[in-house]
Amino acid sequence: MSRLFMFEKPLGMRDTLPELYETKNQVRSAIGDEMRRWGYQFMETPALEYYETVGTASAILDQQLFKLLDSQGHTLVLRPDMTAPIARVAASKLLKEDQPLRLAYSASVFRAQQREGGRPAEFEQIGIESIGDDTISADGEIIALLVSSLREAGLDRFQISVGHIGFVQELFQQILGTEERAHSLTRFLYEKNYVGYREHVKSLNLSSIDRQRLLDFLKLRGGVEVIDWALALIENEKGKAAIQELKQLWEIVVDYGEVEKLRFDLTLVSHMSYYTGILFEVYADQVGFPIGSGGRYNLLLEKFGKSSGATGFALRLDRLLEALGELKKEELAHCILFSEERRQEAFQLAKDKRRAGVKTIVQDINGVKNIDRFTGQFGEVTFLVGSAGRGSY
User: Fold this and answer.
1) Residue 80 C-beta-side C-alpha neighbours within 13 Å
2) How far apart are CA 134 and CA 141, in angstroms?
3) Looking at domain 334-392, which of 3.30.420.10, 3.10.450.50, 3.40.50.12590, 3.40.50.12780 is its CATH number?
4) Biggest alpha carbon distance in the chain?
5) CATH topology for 6-324?
6) Cα 164 from chain centroid (whole Å)
7) Residue ranges per domain, the chain?
8) Is the dihedral of CA 316, 322, 323, 326 positive or negative?
9) Most exposed: 155, 285, 299, 360, by fewest CB within 10 Å?
C-alpha cells in the first residue's frame, strides 16, 4: 500500500472517534427509547440491496448510488436511504393482514458525493415508518413523535416546516398547463432559488392574474392563516382537498399540544420523488441544513407489489449533534490499578463495582508509563499494589 493511501479514507467517509461515538450513542439511545414508548419496533435491513428494486425505488439520483456487482453479475447498491428497504420488507413480509405497522430504524446510509461538495458519503439516520394507515391522524402522530424525540435528545430550539406536494403540483399544473412546465418551475423551489423563481414566472406567457397567483404562492408561509390564503389561490378540488388535509393536520397537532413547533411553508418540496402528500423538514438554530425530514409516500409500496399508505420521518444524527452542541459529559470511570500479586482482588473489586452500576476499568500498573497522565482521565483511582492496603484518590 502506498503511503498516500495508508491513512486516507474514501471520499466522503469519516472516522468516529470514541468521544463523538459516545455522544452519538447518548442521543441515539434517548430517541430510540422514546420511539419504543410510542409503540414503534426497531428493525434492520441489509447494507447491500439490488439496484433493480431498492436502488430504483429510493428516489436518490443514480449518480449518487454506490454500485457494485455480485458473483452472479447482479448490480447491487449500498442502501441510499432506509425508507425504500423498509417498504420492501413491509410489502413482502409484514403486511399480510393489512394491519398498520409502526417500524423504526437506526442505520447508516450511503450517497456518493462530488469531490468539491465536502459532504459525508456515509451518515446515520434514525427514523420511523408508519405503514398501512391512510389517515391524517398518522401524519399527526409522526410529527408529534418527531417533536417528542428531539426534546428527549435535548434539543429545545427547532421548527418544523410543513407543506403538501399535492397542492404544489395541482396549482402549477392548473396554471401552467403541462407537467413539464410545472417541473421546470418546481426546480427553483428544490434549490430554494426564490429570485430565480420570480424571474422565471415573469418570463412566462401568462395572464396578469395567473402570474400574480404564482408570485403570491411564495407568501404561503406562517401559521393557520395560511390555510385561507392557499384556498384563495387554488381553484380545483384536488388542490383544495390537499389544503383541507393540512388544516386537519394542524388541528391534530393542536390536540397533541405541540403546535408551537409547527409552521406552514407551502413552497416546500423535496428531492425525494416518492412523496405524495404532506411533507415536512425540521430546522434548528445554527445549522444550515435540515436536521430531519419526512412525509407521506402512498405510492412507494406499489413498486414492491403492495398498495398501502405510508408516512414517516428520518433524523440525521450528524446534523442533530451539530444543533445540540456540547452535551453533558458522562460520569468519569473508576480505575483500579493493580500489581500482579493483587490481580484477583482487583478483578473481583471491579466486578462488584460494575454490578453496582459504576463504569470501571482495571489496569495492570506495569502497562502504564506515565502514572499521573494516565490517572488524570478518571474520576477516582484505586491502587491495589504491593502485598496489602488500598489507596484511592
Assistant:
1) 23
2) 12
3) 3.40.50.12590
4) 96
5) BirA Bifunctional Protein; domain 2 (3.30.930)
6) 19
7) 6-324, 334-392
8) positive
9) 285
pLDDT tens-place string over residues 159-195: 999 999 999 999 999 999 888 899 899 999 988 999 9
Give ∠ CA 39-43-47 in degrees, rounded to 5.
150
CA pair distance 376, 373, nearest whole angstrom: 5
Q: Rounded to an integer, what distance in angstroms lies between the CA atom of residue 315 and that of residue 160? A: 12
Residue corresponding to grid cell 430504483: 56
**pLDDT of 330-353, one tens digit each?**
778 899 999 999 999 999 999 999
Q: What local confidence, expressed as pLDDT, does residue 3 receive?
A: 62
For the stretch 98-153, pLDDT in tens is 688 999 999 998 888 765 456 787 889 999 999 999 999 999 999 999 999 999 99
Chain centroid to Cα 308, Å, comes to 22
Helix or strand holding residue 42 (H, E): strand 41-42
Query: What is the distance between the alpha carbons of residues 198 and 214, in angstroms, rounded to a whole number?
Result: 8
Query: What are the grid coordinates assigned to 230, written together?
Result: 392557499
The predicted structure's pLDDT at residue 137 = 95
Predicted local distance difference test score (pLDDT) of residue 280: 97
Q: Which amino acid is at 122?
A: E
Low-confidence ranges of the chain (pLDDT < 50): 1, 116
Angle at 151 between CA 379 and CA 119, to 5 degrees: 85
Q: Any residues with CB less than 8 A from the CB of 6 and at least 6 apart, and which? A: none
Rounded Cα–Cα distance for residues 21 and 175 (Å): 51
Does the reported pTM lie above 0.70? yes
CA neighbor of 30 nearest in space, from 126, 158, 143, 128: 126
